[in-house]
Design goal:
With 183 residues, the protein is mainly beta. The protein is built from 3 helices and 10 strands; from the N terminus they run βββαββββαβαββ.
């Protein structure tokens, strides 16, 4: 997230992230990880609390450099959000944790997510409704069962493709919904 504008303010906020039971369905290679969308939510809420005028729905250059692993029986994650304000009005916020090596006084800071909230928001291109519901090119279907069995091995709480997934080399279309039990 290179920026050529000068940093004019840096603040650090401690955050306690309560671990949700459904997160245990979100894992990589058998280890539970904080879902990216949850990391973005924590960052956005912290920025909004610190800088209420920030439009946290306009995000750019979102990065997830390291998984935030959640150990079994963990009830909350101790983390912090580092917020940098730039002279051009942009804000970059990072979700980080601090870990200490066993039997050592060496600690390490890990950055898990970084989000830029640009002050100068460019209007998104408006896609005409007829193009919004059509896929360009030859289309093939992949069943949600196959997606979650072979490609996205998360538990049932993160199976949000509810009906067929249609793919082309130019895009994808599917009916999606919230995980079970969520409103």
């Amino acid at each position: 997230m290179a920026d050529f504008s000068q940093i004019i303010e840096t603040v650090r906020f401690p955050v306690d992230i309560p671990v949700q039971t459904c997160w245990h369905d979100h894992h990589v290679e058998g280890r539970v990880v904080l879902p990216a969308v949850e990391a973005m939510q924590v960052v956005a809420e912290t920025v909004k609390n610190c800088k209420p005028d920030t439009a946290v729905t306009g995000m750019a250059q979102v990065q997830f450099d390291k998984f935030l692993y959640i150990q079994p029986a963990t009830e909350k994650i101790d983390a912090r959000v580092d917020i940098e304000t730039y002279a051009n009005g942009d804000i970059i916020a990072r979700l980080v944790t601090k870990t200490q090596a066993e039997n050592s006084s060496i600690s390490r800071i890990k950055e898990h997510a970084a989000v830029r909230y640009p002050l100068d928001k460019k209007s998104p291109a408006v896609v005409p409704p007829d193009l919004n519901s059509a896929l360009q090119g030859d289309c093939f279907e992949v069943s949600p069962d196959r997606i979650y069995l072979e490609l996205v091995p998360f538990g049932p709480e993160y199976h949000n493709i509810k009906e067929r997934l249609l793919l082309t080399e130019h895009g994808a279309m599917a009916k999606i919904g919230s995980p079970p039990g969520e409103q």
